Each structure stands twice: as C-alpha cells, then as structure tokens.
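Q: Protein A?
A:
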Amino acid sequence: IIYKVEEMSDIDKVMHFQKGLVVEIKQEVKLRQFRNTTDAISFALMYDRTHASPHHVEEPTPMEIGSSRFVSREECLRSNLCFYCKEPGHRLATCP
C-alpha cells in the first residue's frame, strides 16, 4: 500500500511501516532512523530472523492462498499484508 501512494514522502512511508511492527522491532527500526522503506524492511526482516524467541523451535506453516500459493512472513512484511488473513490495508491487531 505504501508504495502505491505517490504523495507520501519516504520518511512518511517508513513511519507508516513502523506502525505495523511488533514493539521490539519497531523500537530497533526507530533507533536507526531509516530514510527509505527498503532499508527499514530489510533491517526488520534481519532483526526478526536473528532475534527469534529461544522457545520458538519451528516457524509456523504459511497460510495457503488459493490452491497452491503460500505467503511467508517476509512476503507479508515486503507487501504490507496482515500476518493473519494476508490481506492488505491492516495488521494483525486490527484484522476484521
């Protein structure tokens, strides 16, 4: 969604992206003051992978879309999709 809004500045896009992150990752992204979404998203993905919970043994199976398409967590972050329903326009906390 943020890539489709041409009037949004890069900084505004980064701030909008941050709103959908979990608190720990949001704080880390804010500290680094990224000026573009590409860097912010790359960092958020890297941070999420390297700071996974020690109790987390196996990543859940991605939700199936259609008959043969799976959407990964990384793809949700890149495409600004809800982690639960995989639809754009909202995040898990506000999923209908």
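Q: Protein B?
A:
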Amino acid sequence: MGALVALASVLTAFLLVSIRGFPRGSALLGAVSVVSAAVFLALVAFVHPSGDDYDFALALRGGGPWSVVSQFYHQWSGRFSAILVTSVVTSLHPLAWACRSALIAVVVIEAAALAAIIRVGSARSVSRAQAAWVALVVMCVCAGSMPSTAEGLYWMSAVLGYGLGFAVLL
C-alpha cells in the first residue's frame, strides 16, 4: 500500500510540475491524470474501519440506522445528514463493500460537481470533456496535496461528512 501511495504522490507531483509545460489538450497530461486518479481509487480496496467507524457499526448492530440517527440528532452532533447517510450505507453491509462503494461514489460525485461548476463558470465556453479533464486534474492535485489521504479520502465518516457536503455545496 505504501508503494501505491508513493506512486500516486509522484504522479500528482508530476501533474503539478508539468501543467504549464503541456498544451491545453495534452494527451500525456490526460493519461497521467487518469492513472493518478486510478491509483487513488484503487487504494479504496485497502480501506479498513478506523476512528468512529467502529462506533457506528456497534450502534447499528444494537438498534439499526434510525436509532443511530436519533441518537446523534438528540445529542446535537451537527453531523445529522452525514450520520443519516453513513447509517444507511453501513446498514447494507457494515464496513465492507458498501463502505468502499460509498467512498468511490462520493469522489466521483465530487468530480462531477466540480466539472459542472467549471462548465457553468466558463459560461459554457469549455466543453464537457475539457471540464471533466480539469476536474480530474484538480481532484488528483488536491488528493496528492492532502496531509493525510487516509483521513481525507479513505475514512468513511470524513468522506460522507465533508466530501458529500462539498459536492452538494458545489
């Protein structure tokens, strides 16, 4: 796993250094972006529960998703929507394939939201393909620049709490 993180970091560093050196539609930069994104998404296969993921699993086993949502709502947690999504996703099959699928889905939703903002912000002068390409580059650069990709991309509570909120905000 360390080698995959190192590879993703090197590819992201290459993106950061080379963005100015390539023409706008460079196939090489696009290929590097796709490979870098694929590495970050492939790391989802190694995701394991951490932090408060265990609390969610225990609470879900004890009372189901609605009791977890009710508990956090009455405690004024402030993460009510994220808790609702986390409870529903993990109740499908706690901390296994549903968790990994949700992480990938949120990253894809974030990239799609970012591409839509780029397209609308450019008054539609940027094509859908160009907007998707720029969104992919931005997502890879952001992922590679995170102080902790484990907490930013692979911790379910953080991804659903902050990542999904970011996508909805866009």
